[in-house]
Structures are given as structure tokens and as C-alpha cells.
Amino acid sequence: MRGDAGAATLLRPRSTEEAIRLLGRSAKAMPLAGGTDVMVSWNAGKLAGRTFVDLSALRSLRGQRATARALVVGALTTHTELMRHAAVRRSFPLLGIACGTVGGVQIQNRGTLGGNIANASPAGDTFPPLLVYDAVVIARGPRGRREIPIGDVFVGVKKTCLAKGELIEAVRLPLPRRPTRQTFRKVGTRAAQAISKTVVAGLLWLDRRGRVEELRFAIGSVAPTVKRLRTVEAFVAGQTLSRDVVHEAARLLARDISPIDDIRSTAEYRMAVSRNLLAGFLSGTLS
Asked: How far apart are alpha carbons 231 and 233 in whole angstroms?
């Protein structure tokens, strides 16, 4: 490994308050949760001289709490724990499915939801489900707690709105109505252990006449941050999903996302796949 252990500092706070103080002391201090993304950067020699604040001993960031209206998930909850959690499987199945696509079993056992969000990769597999479930990030810092809608957390490639010294304490998932239709789909080079070229999550509610009451559709890996398709969602509201409506919704996708060419795929491919996934979901051929 190319990381210089001798140039690094590892701190192990005993409380959340202490962790916040340590993170606020230096611009080089960074939180360490599961470490699955940190170790990749470490191996690439990108984190020389950094101070790591190890959060693994903080019980206040662990556990899950169900209320009548929401499930509150501690930031250190692992992907494996989410996949196995009864409330996630029952009320937030797309999140559980997404967690099962994150790397391999070893990554799922170590990687945490809070760490995944803080890493802010454009290709984060859990982000589209979190967006369609209207998740709220609970952050805690020197000025106390604040709640941030998940879509407002990401401000760029691997960049968040978190201030110096702020930690992700938990994620709150409001209990949704049972959808008429739902989907999670990840498209990558391989069927497993691949970074997504396009990753989507969708929830759809239809009334008794088959008209759209509400659509929530989010796409990752096609922009610097995960995107909700606000233009498409507004267009289909109140409409019956005829062939023409679905075709127009797919066309309008270009107003919500602007894919790029990169090492994993082309903009043209990403747009074509995203349109196919959206059209398949709306027409009922993709679930």
C-alpha cells in the first residue's frame, strides 16, 4: 500500500462531542467509519499526512429506531444490517436491494450508510432509493443538530454541504404509503461488484382510474450528484400512462439530467439506458 502510516494520525474519541471537537481542530482531520472508501484513497497515496478520527466506538451513531412515522437509522449502520432489518425490508425495500449491490460481502459488512453519504460519490448505489424515500440526514456539529434533505447534502463530486466539524449522526426515513409500483435497477459492466453506469430508483402511485397520483424517480451516475426527475415527475402527474405520455416523459428526461463521457461509459449510452429504464417503469414492463 502506498499510504504512509508514519505520516498519519489516528484518534479514537469516546463520545460524539469529542469527535466533533477533534474534527474541528484541523482542516486535515477526517472521519473514519467503515473505511471502505478511505482505504482506496489511502492505497492510491492521496491521504498522506491526514488525521483520521475513528468513529467506530461511538454507540450513539449505531442502531435503528422505529417510530409511528419514520425509521431513524444510525450513521454507522452497515449495508448488511440494512439488508437484514425487518423494517427496511417491509417499508423501504429499494434501500435494502441497493445495499446488496454495494461491492461484495466484505464491503457490505464494513461500509456504513453515513460513510456512504459522506463520501458523496455520484455513483452511490443507495442514493436514488434515499432520494425517492425523502430521506433526511441528521447532522451534528459545533452549532448543534440540523436536518438536511438528502438531495441538499450533495453539492458536487465527492462534496457535501457538511460544515467543518459536522458529522452525520443518523438518517431519518419517513414511512411512505404503499406504492402501486416500485423499482431499483443498477446497470454496470458486470452483474456484481461493479461501479454503476446508471442506477435508478422509482416509486409510483396510481389512483383507481389508473392516473398518476405521484411519481418519484431518481437517477445516479449520470451527473455530479444524484438527481430526482422533477420535470418528468411534474409532467406525468394526473395523467394516464399511455404510450404517448410515456414516450414524452422519456424525451423530457434530458431536461433533468446531462450525462457525461467518462472511463466507465458514454453520455449517449447513459441517456439511452436511463430513458429505457424510465419508460419501462412507467409502462409497467420494469419492476
From this structure: 5
Confidence at residue 188, expressed as pLDDT on a 0 to 100 scale: 78
Q: Which CATH class is domain 5-54?
A: alpha beta
Domain 181-283 has CATH 3.30.390.50: yes
**What's the CA gap between 106 and 110, in Å, rounded?**
6
Which tens digits make up the pLDDT trace of 140-161? 999 999 999 999 999 999 999 9
Residues of the chain with pLDDT below 70 are 1-7, 190-193, 287
What is the third-level CATH fold of 59-174? 3.30.465
pLDDT recorded at residue 46: 78
Interior/surface letters 25-51, b for 16+ CB within 10 angstroms, e for the rest: eeeebebbbbbbbbeeebeeeebeebb
Q: For residue 88, what pLDDT is reported?
A: 96
**244 backbone dihedrals φ, ψ, rounded to 5°:** -70, -40
Q: Residue 122 in contact with residue 223, Cβ under 8 Å?
A: yes
Task: Say which residues have a Cβ less than 8 Å from residue 214's Cβ, sequence separation at least 6.
Answer: 203, 204, 205, 233, 237
- For the chain, give every domain's residue range: 5-54, 59-174, 181-283
